[in-house]
Write a structure and sequence with these properties.
505 residues, 17 helices, globular, disordered C terminus
Length: 505
């Protein structure tokens, strides 16, 4: 067995064979609904504008509420959160299908689309967080963690290729509503299976320490019962061992105490004073700034939730730019196939790029460990920029297929690398939120690019959309060359992973 095969076998060994199946089937409805909602509303309303508004509202709902889903999963564990959002998403999809078939108003369809996007259970980001948690708990090597992220990204790629294909097949054979109804059943069944899988226990948040955690152990001389039963000592002044007196305040002649420094009550009073002073200093340090609205909103749980490092913003920007590349390429492909009179080929061209991206993602496990994440990031962004340039001169269907398929080689490696850098940059207690935020950045960038470059393609031709994709790739490359994402280092005693900086690799 090859090294790559052994590594993937280790990854499957962490989860068992059932979880990857449930994870893949549970994330398939997300790709199905994004494309299916547009087709459904376009067919039932006869208006591409209404269909676009519905699809845009769906994407906006997912972008806005995605980080909230991740934060809730970090705070309460994935089991409860995924269960609630899976059933909520199934109901929202059902309501959207019902509204489209019954001729609901444009506003109602937009609101139903937003609700459908807001209730997406985000199986992809949460699956990444769970698999990384399993690998860290098993003390797996970094190669296994990287392979786990490659595996998850490949599942995403396959789902986003297969989902639209299933919708298109349903639209040709019957009606897009059938595909969305199947998506509602699938997210309810497989989302629940993902939530109830035994591995969900690894995502339970650690219990916060209580006030009794650091309380010193009581000794016999400070026994509360003995302190309270003052009548048991008829002559406290004659106590044979004044230094061990459990209640120093009860001594009638404290000045005569042979060993005042050894009095346990005196020491306890000093300890209490020290603890009170420390608590006051900590309270002042953690007290929210009343002039800062963020501190007013989140000051209460700042100690329990470590802050996100600033370096993560560069990673999110890179993902948003990759989403913009997706969206611009989608608009350009659609415009060029329509100009060539073969509009039905647009989905197949986009699928070819997705298949090549999935193959490249699986192959990432073969990259030697000595090639660090920083170097991989720079290489992936440079390759995406270089491989996007031939699209500017594509003027035939064959040239389009060739250029887009080769470009797919750079997509998954960039996604996998940025998710790997994100995993190392953020505290483990906020990993699900970070993964969800990263996915929202990707989806948001794609939605904005589709809306903007679609108009550019109509006005100036497909090359304008492809040029926007190349510009986004160039900006992502500039970020990779200048940003220095560092690793989140924390005390190993807390159970979090301590890592080394990544920007020097």
């Amino acid at each position: 067995m090859t090294t790559m095969g052994r590594t993937y076998r280790e990854v499957i060994g962490l989860t068992g064979p059932l979880l990857p199946v449930l994870s893949f089937l549970a994330r398939l409805p997300t790709a199905t609904v994004q494309f299916g909602s547009v087709l459904l509303v376009a067919r039932t309303s006869g208006s591409l504008t209404v269909a676009g508004l519905t699809g845009g509202a769906l994407a906006l709902g997912q972008v806005a509420c995605g980080p909230l889903v991740g934060r809730l999963a970090d705070r309460h564990g994935q089991r409860t959160v995924v269960l609630a959002f899976s059933f909520g998403n199934a109901l929202a999809i059902t309501a959207l299908v019902t509204g489209a078939l019954t001729g609901a108003s444009t506003l109602a369809l937009a609101l139903l689309g937003a609700a459908t996007g807001a209730t997406v259970p985000l199986i992809g980001p949460l699956g990444r967080a769970r698999l990384v948690a399993l690998a860290r708990r098993a003390h797996a090597p970094e190669t296994t963690v990287s392979t786990a992220l490659s595996f998850e990204s490949t599942l995403d790629e396959i789902s986003f290729v297969l989902g639209p294909a299933l919708v298109g097949l349903a639209a040709v054979l019957a009606h897009p509503a059938h595909a969305l109804a199947g998506a509602a059943l699938l997210v309810a069944a497989c989302g629940s299976g993902f939530a109830l899988h035994p591995t969900a226990a690894t995502t339970r948040p650690a219990k916060a320490p209580t006030a009794h955690t650091n309380r010193p152990e009581r000794t016999a001389c400070s026994d509360r019962t003995a302190r309270d039963d003052r009548a048991a000592c008829p002559d406290r002044a004659a106590c044979p061992d004044r230094a061990a007196c459990p209640d120093r305040a009860a001594c009638p002649d404290r000045a005569a105490c042979p060993d005042r420094a050894a009095c346990p009550e005196r020491t306890a009073r000093a300890d209490r004073a020290d603890r009170t002073a420390l608590a006051a200093r900590t309270d002042r340090a953690d007290r929210p700034d009343p002039t800062d609205p963020t501190d007013r909103a989140h000051g209460a749980d700042r100690a329990a939730r470590p802050l996100m490092p600033r370096s993560v913003h560069a990673l999110r920007a890179a993902l948003a730019l990759q989403g913009a590349m997706f969206g611009a390429c989608q608009a350009g492909i659609t415009a060029l196939t329509e100009r060539l009179g073969q509009a039905d080929q647009a989905g197949l061209v986009y699928a070819a790029m997705g298949v090549m991206s999935a193959v490249a993602g699986l192959s990432m496990a073969a990259v030697p460990a000595r090639v660090g994440l920083g170097r991989r990031w720079r290489a992936a962004t440079a390759a995406a920029f270089a491989l996007s340039l031939p699209l500017l001169w594509a003027d035939s269907l064959g040239a389009l297929y060739a250029a887009v398929t080769v470009l797919g080689v750079a997509y998954a490696p960039h996604l996998i690398t940025v998710f790997g850098l994100t995993e190392r940059a953020v505290p483990s207690t906020r990993l699900a939120e970070a993964m969800a935020f990263a996915t929202s950045a990707l989806v948001g960038g794609q939605a904005l690019a589709v809306a903007g470059t679609g108009r550019l393609a109509e006005a100036y031709g497909p090359a304008a959309a492809f040029g926007t994709a190349s510009l986004a790739a160039a900006l992502a490359c500039a970020i990779a060359l200048t940003a220095q994402p560092t690793s989140y280092a924390q005390n190993p005693a807390t159970g979090d992973h301590a890592r080394v900086p990544t920007h020097r690799t």
